[in-house]
Amino acid sequence: MSRVRTRPTRDDTCEKLFEAAARVFEEQGIGGASIEAIAAAAGFSRGAFYSNFKSKDELIIAMLEDHVAQSIRRSLDLLARHKSLADFIDALKTMDRSQQDPLGRSPLLHMEMILFVARAEKRRPDLAKRLRARRKLVADIVETTLKSNGKNGFINPAWTGAILLALEDGFRLHRLIDPETTPADSFLRAIGDLQRGMGISSS
């Protein structure tokens, strides 16, 4: 007879800590949030936290890494089902954020966490790895949509990916500063405008 697992796996524990940390960060601020508060919000002891992460910074890096990994999986899945740029953008607009990781549901918290980690110079290489992964994803999407529209070679996918990612991060920062004049869909609207400006077909 197989044993019934009564203890949560490490993945289960990490997921609960990620969710709890996001709530505590939004309520108390990233700098002011304590490990004790995060552990308590997840229903764990301080010891349970330290059995998974050495510090709050390590937890944040893990959350950012998990977000990038999940974003890549979701985007590639959408791209496989929606080859045209317009269809892909529409799919992104209608994506159910409630099913995403905490940073997927809260782009502003994602940006705040990046800025928090970037203040520590020794942590910047960790951020750089995630940035490169995000750039590659966007470049792959650009290349796929260009090929499907017969415009391969018309644009440099890598450079265009870097521009689009900077544009996305810029809109996130602007929304953090002035949400009244920066709608949540600003980036996707900008992509649609660029698509039309480059003469890329929506079909």
Q: What's the quick description here?
A:
GO terms for molecular function: DNA-binding transcription factor activity; transcription cis-regulatory region binding. This is TetR/AcrR family transcriptional regulator. By secondary structure, this protein is mainly α.
Model description:
This protein starts with 9 loop residues before the first helix and ends in a 6-residue tail after the last helix. It is elongated, with a radius of gyration of 19 Å. The chain has helices spanning about 10-30, 35-40, 45-50, 55-80, 85-95, 100-105, 105-120, 125-150, 155-175, 185-195. The protein folds into two domains: about 10-55, Arc Repressor Mutant, subunit A (Orthogonal Bundle); about 55-195, Tetracycline Repressor, domain 2 (Orthogonal Bundle). It is about 70% helix and about 0% strand. GO terms for molecular function: DNA-binding transcription factor activity; transcription cis-regulatory region binding.
Oligomer: single chain
Alpha-beta classification: mainly alpha
Average pLDDT score: 84
The helix fraction, in percent, is 55-70%
- Could you give a short account of the major beta sheet? none
N/C terminus separation: 55 Å
Number of helices: 10
Structural domain tally: 2
- Number of DSSP E strands: 0
CATH architecture of the largest domain: Orthogonal Bundle
Content of β-strand: under 5%
Organism: Bradyrhizobium sediminis
Protein name: TetR/AcrR family transcriptional regulator
InterPro entries: Homeodomain-like_sf, HTH-type_TetR-like_transc_reg, HTH_TetR, Tet_transcr_reg_TetR-rel_C_sf
Pfam families: TetR_N
